[in-house]
Write a structure and sequence with these properties.
heterodimer, A: 123 residues, B: 108 residues, mainly beta, 6-stranded mixed β-sheet, 3-stranded antiparallel β-sheet
Chain lengths: 123, 108
């Protein structure tokens, strides 16, 4: 059973960079069968896809966040990470990491999720 | 940017059938997926690739898709099914993921 666990600071100052790590157990980020991704959810609001990574050469980002987001992967630690720069109060959210499974050319989805970590941006 | 539209809320009595719709221009060519999110919990996949049910999901959950609309059906809704349900899909390029706004299902 694949398990994912987010970690990182729960409080980030405005204009600084948010950094989170997702540690995977029961599976390998080296696997050629899956991507790994991030999703966020502002308090009381809906889900927003942030991006996904297959390897360092294959990353896809939400266009609305692309200029500020970097997702990277560390195969030696079986982890992948999220960096979001120049944060504002609008970036306050629960951040989830997830395993991404593809449906061929017809889509991709998140089948295993972490429990989420709340990040608050303070002024 | 690509959007998926869902009704904000649906209400049913216990034992009745609940239907939640999701509309999007790319749905004729891209799969729909459905997530259940109970209060304070991470989302759980309940339907994938339009109609498939992951192991452990009750049979009362089913999915369908026709044209630009996908539908999640709960046949015989139970109080424990109260949650927010999100549809999810990708844009026509297949590169970008998109969630619908979510539908709060009330069973009472």
């Amino acid at each position: 059973q694949v398990q994912l666990q987010e970690s990182g600071p729960g409080l980030v100052k405005a204009s600084e960079t948010l950094s989170l790590t997702c540690t995977v157990s029961g599976g390998s980020v080296r696997s050629r069968s899956f991507y790994w991704g991030w999703i966020r959810q502002p308090p009381g609001k809906g889900l927003e896809w942030i991006g996904r990574i297959y390897d360092s050469e294959n990353t896809y980002y939400n266009p609305s966040l692309k200029s500020r987001v970097t997702i990277s992967i560390d195969t030696s630690k079986n982890q992948f990470s999220l960096r979001l720069s120049s944060v504002t109060a609008a970036d306050t959210a629960m951040y989830y990491c997830a395993r991404v499974t593809t449906s061929g050319y017809s889509g991709f989805y998140f089948d295993y999720w972490g429990q989420g970590t709340l990040v608050t941006v303070s002024s | 940017s690509y959007e998926l539209a869902q009704p904000p809320s649906v209400s049913v009595s216990p034992g009745q059938t609940a239907r939640i719709t999701c509309s999007g221009e790319a749905l004729p060519k891209k799969y729909a997926y459905w997530y259940q999110q109970r209060s304070g919990q991470a989302p759980v996949l309940v339907i994938y690739e339009d109609t498939k049910r992951p192991s452990g999901i009750p049979e009362r959950f089913s999915g369908s898709s026709s044209g630009t609309m996908a539908t999640l059906t709960l046949s015989g809704a139970q109080v424990e099914d109260e949650a927010v349900y999100y549809c999810y899909s990708t844009d026509s390029s297949g590169d970008q993921g998109v969630f619908g706004g979510g539908t709060k299902l009330t069973v009472l």
